[in-house]
Design brief:
By secondary structure, the protein is of the alpha+beta class. The protein is built from 21 helices and 28 strands. The N terminus is likely disordered.
Length: 645
């Protein structure tokens, strides 16, 4: 998983000056302060490292103490007065490479079972501990070490073993040529997790954040010059600039740069109603400190209303962003800037593979009259922190309480480690969320693991989480771990030459009045009868009744017809009145009451509203994918499914 991810991601040019003992972001190999040769830091891509702040330091020291049984071991690995970096790495939950003196000395990771941070010492960290004979360790009488080899007690010639199994301890062969890290298993044996040839220890001098700033000052100037050029390029559109300010570090730097190079600019905070108190306070502080007006586009309480209808959002079922963030933002921008605007965002290419592919200046996908620019697209997280500290800006205090990102506190992108912080700091908020989750779980009969490991964060479990559960001997295939607000069963599939007839039964009755109102969004070729709505388009016929749906279509387009039908039905049935469709309609043919209503005399049937509807694009997409998959199976092996005539 790591190797595949590394190939897809860009990698930050992270080097280290061993003389100054600081990280240097440079494509070259010479320190601009002392002239020394820079070494490359072997960090996992994208190497978007961040500074280790005091909270993380204390938490990591505690993890080392618990894992290795020694406070002095923690002092050896993380001496005070040194710059320490954290670099996110793939894992079933939160995990970071810990980098000090230019070397990865271990991984800290959050264990979903114990709900604690743990530490796995590596490379020079192993050398330091074994040479000092500090903490738990073992010297083994083996010619070499290999992954998954189990070292028996008879081969352990010197050790300070932990009192219980499960600890991760440093290893070295008796001849000193090989080192590794192993897990203590039954009867005092050790299973080798990773092995390598001996690494020379390196003990660098102390360094401060001022040293880091000095070593990266010229890079920062180049990045600022580039940002200025991005702003200059965008001025040709002759539209007002608006900074999308989230209260996070990246948008703080984007805002400060905009004020520096553009002068008086407006800023907009899209208030989802799900931000933590520190974020709201930080936004007020930034507005006062920088003398900028920060408008608010407010979602109100729509999230919890929508949650009762749609269920909790997931990483692969993320209706929340459109409903709570984008819809209020688009509504505000259209009212304030009817001719369009240029949105300044704090997007960076090192955040994800998807963002690495996004252009620095592009037309907005949700507001066609507007453009979006990303002046800090080339910046790493470390660049951002250097700029913040150098300029004396005051970032969101959540960064110093253990959060490495700020935003919606119940975001499905959060790891368990972050959710535990929310639970610790804000018990009332967490209790409210747990009650909402429990209501959904009980209503749909979900397995207890869904709550225990916050599996609501996915509709389709990723491989690492699936393996984690299977390693605990859970049969994932037999567990109910997700629920859509509506289901459809396939009652019958009949094939006749090049045509398929598919009969579906929805899990709840359909409101035909609502369905007929929404259908016009993508076709005007329909008739409304007493007991059904009938569509005739693209050589297909769709009959929608209160308790049944019958689709007859040529095989080559049947998937498209099924998808369109399902998306229309779920939009009609589950509309949460977010208003996104209202803002997207080119004819102002949609009005918003308790639900979206289409004026059929104005509608162009252009399908624009259906394409942006979060219900259609999430519930509709997932439900239609399930049905289409079964139809594909029928087409391949019709004798195994339903009826063939």
């Amino acid at each position: 998983m790591v190797d595949k991810m590394s190939k897809r991601l860009v990698k930050a040019p992270l080097k280290w000056c061993t003389e100054c003992n600081v990280p240097v972001l440079s494509h070259g190999y010479v320190c601009e302060v002392c002239g020394s040769h820079l070494i490359e830091v072997r960090a996992t891509a994208p190497a978007d490292v961040r500074l280790m702040f005091d909270f993380d330091y204390r938490m990591t020291v505690e993890a080392i103490k618990q894992e290795l049984g020694s406070e002095k071991a923690a002092s050896l690995l993380l001496p005070k007065g040194h710059i320490v970096l954290l670099n996110k790495i793939p894992y079933v939950d939160a995990a970071d490479e810990v980098i000090i003196d230019g070397m990865v000395i271990g991984h800290r990771f959050y264990d979903p079972l114990s709900r604690k941070w743990r530490f796995k010492v590596l490379y020079q960290g192993v050398t330091q501990l074994i040479e000092a004979r500090e903490g738990y360790y073992a010297i083994v009488d083996l010619p070499k070490m290999a992954r998954d080899y189990v070292v028996h007690k008879s081969h352990i010639v010197e050790a300070n073993m932990p009192p219980s199994k499960g600890h991760l301890i440093p290893l070295q062969t008796k001849n000193g040529r090989y080192q590794g890290v192993g897990k203590v298993v039954r009867k005092g044996r050790i299973r080798i997790l990773k092995a390598w040839t001996y690494k020379e220890p390196y003990y660098g001098r102390g360094a401060s954040i001022d040293d880091v700033i000095r070593a990266n000052e010229n890079r920062l100037k180049r990045l600022m010059t580039y940002a200025e050029a991005v702003f200059e390029e965008a001025t040709k559109y002759r539209k007002p600039f608006v900074v999308s300010f989230s209260g996070g570090k990246d948008s703080l730097v984007a805002l400060h740069l905009a004020l520096r190079f553009l002068g008086d600019v407006k800023a907009l905070f899209s208030d989802t109603g799900l931000e933590l108190p520190e974020t709201y306070a930080s936004i007020d502080h930034v507005a006062d400190g920088l003398g900028v007006e920060i408008a608010r586009a407010q979602a109100g309480n729509i999230f919890f209303r929508a949650m009762e209808i749609l269920g909790p959002p997931a990483r692969d079922y993320r209706w929340c962003c459109k409903v709570c963030k984008l819809a209020p933002m688009v509504r505000y921008l259209k009212r304030q800037f009817p001719e369009g605007n240029i949105s300044i965002v704090g997007q960076r290419k090192y955040e994800s593979a998807a963002r690495a592919r996004m252009p620095i200046l592009t037309r907005s996908k949700i507001l066609p009259t507007s453009h979006v620019i990303a002046p800090i697209n080339e910046w790493t997280s470390l660049d951002v922190w250097i700029y913040i500290i150098k300029e004396g800006l005051r970032p969101n205090p959540l960064y110093f309480k253990g959060f490495d990102r700020v935003g919606c506190w119940l975001c499905p992108a959060c790891e368990l480690a972050e959710l535990e912080l929310v639970k610790m700091y804000y018990p009332a908020l967490w209790e409210m969320w747990e009650k909402a989750l429990n209501r959904w779980a009980e209503r749909h009969g979900l397995h207890p693991l869904w709550m225990r490991f916050s599996l609501w964060r996915w509709h389709r479990l990723p491989g690492d989480m699936r393996r984690f559960l299977e390693n605990m001997r859970f049969n994932v295939e037999k567990m109910k771990l997700r629920a859509l607000p509506i289901h459809m069963s396939i009652e019958q599939v009949i094939s006749s030459r090049d045509t398929l007839t598919i009969s579906l039964r929805p899990s709840q009755p359909l409101d035909l009045k609502r369905v007929s109102n929404i259908i016009v969004s993508f076709t005007s070729c329909y008739e409304v009868g007493h007991h059904s709505v009938v569509l005739n388009y693209q050589n297909s016929r769709v009959e929608i009744a209160e308790r049944s749906i019958k689709i007859t279509s040529p095989i080559d387009i049947v998937e498209t017809i099924v998808q369109n039908t399902i998306q229309v039905i779920v939009r009609a049935l589950l509309c949460v009145a977010c208003g996104f469709c209202v803002e997207r309609c080119p004819r102002e043919a949609i009005i918003l009451k308790d639900q979206a209503l289409i004026k059929d005399d104005l509608c162009l049937s252009c399908n624009a509203c259906l394409k942006v509807c979060p219900v259609s694009q999430n519930v509709g997409r997932e439900l239609s994918e399930e049905i289409i998959e079964r139809i594909r199976e029928f087409i391949k092996r019709p004798w195994e499914y339903f009826t063939k005539s």
